[in-house]
Amino acid sequence: MSRIYEALEFAGHAPVEDSVAETEFNLTLPKQNESFEEKLLGLYTRIDSMIENRGGRIISFAGLGDEESSATYVMEMARVGATKLGRRVLVLATCQSGCAKKLFEAGLNRGWENLTYSARSINDIVYRINEPPIAISQLNATKDTLPNLLTSPRVLNTLRLMRKRYDWIFVDTPGIGKGSDASLLSTVADGTVVVVNAGGVRWQVLRHAVAQITAQQGNVLGVALNNRRYEIPDFVYRKL
């Protein structure tokens, strides 16, 4: 491949289908209940209305108080998007996130640190799993490399390619209190959803977490309450 072609490819002028091809990998993730799927479909609609339609959207999820909660939202948003809405979905996990732990257990622990202008190198870091039928990749292999990756022209150009290849890109980060991943990713994402266990975090802590993201010019789309306990039956809330 010539250097001229490589430069055009990473500028977004070459056909994206020729530059990104996932490696098949045998991995199946457990499915959540149907009531949760309904809520996620509603979340899709809300996010869709808040972000301009400009190609593939990058949405990051950041947990507060429970780092595994954001991983659940990311994987189930990916599942619902692929199976219920027929969208092309990529899950992007940062090192030490809940999704990254699942990838590591399955043997998928390559990061983007060695990304080059070779199209083959992109294919080596993007996998397609069986259930749900989505693509998945780990952004950074070690926690110290993320800041440099997010300022690398090669990585940013690759993200532009990913926007053309996928309708939705969901990013999972470690808990907000575990590091700066959520704030850093907010600079390249179209929006961030903060996942909080209902009743498990004081509002002052939540406000500080949101301020951390907005200080980096991040766009906080809202807060998703996890493990919410209803004092009256759920069907009554639907009628209110």
CATH topology of the domain at 3-28 and 39-56 and 66-177: Rossmann fold
Total number of helices:
11
Strand order of the largest sheet: 1-4-5-3-6-2-7-8
**Portion in strands:** 15-25%
Q: pLDDT below 50 for ≥5 consecutive residues: which ranges?
A: 1-21, 229-240
- Structure class: alpha/beta
What's the architecture of the domain at 3-28 and 39-56 and 66-177, going by CATH? 3-Layer(aba) Sandwich
Name of the CATH superfamily of the domain at 3-28 and 39-56 and 66-177: P-loop containing nucleotide triphosphate hydrolases
Helices and strands, in N-to-C order? HHEHEHEHHEEHHEHEHEH
Count of individual beta strands: 8
Report the average pLDDT across residues: 76
Q: Using only CA atoms, what is the Rg?
A: 18 Å
The biggest sheet, with number of strands, parallel, antiparallel or mixed sense and barrel status, is: 8 strands, mixed
Identify the CATH class of the domain at 3-28 and 39-56 and 66-177: Alpha Beta
Through-space gap between termini = 61 Å
**What does the overall shape look like?**
globular
**How much helical structure, as a percent, in the residues?**
40-55%
Structure overview:
The protein is an alpha/beta fold and 240 residues long. It has a domain of 156 residues: Rossmann fold, CATH 3.40.50.300. The chain contains eleven helices and eight strands. Helix 3 packs across helix 4. The N terminus and C terminus are likely disordered.
Give short descriptive properties of this protein.
240 residues, Rossmann fold, disordered C terminus
